[in-house]
Amino acid sequence: MQLAQWVTRHPKQVLAAWTLAAALALPFGWQAPGRMVASVGELPGTESTHVTHLLRDEFGENDNNVVLVTFEAPAQLLPEGQAALEKVPGSRA
Question: Is this model's pTM higher than 0.90 or not?
Fold first, then answer.
């Protein structure tokens, strides 16, 4: 409660402190765009890294912006579903 009272009673000092903090952060802010990358990155041993390697090695997929939809089908499929699933490359019917 004391901090709130001090802040409301000294608005000019608070504004000066925020201005100083922003000015000190400015040199680091100029470096930020060069350090930001749109990379998925890899963490060894994680499931996502394993899937990324599988997509690259097994399917030749180099684009990491892939939406992979997987599902588990019941043991008994309708004949139409079985035929459609057999046409999908890499699927196991």
Answer: no
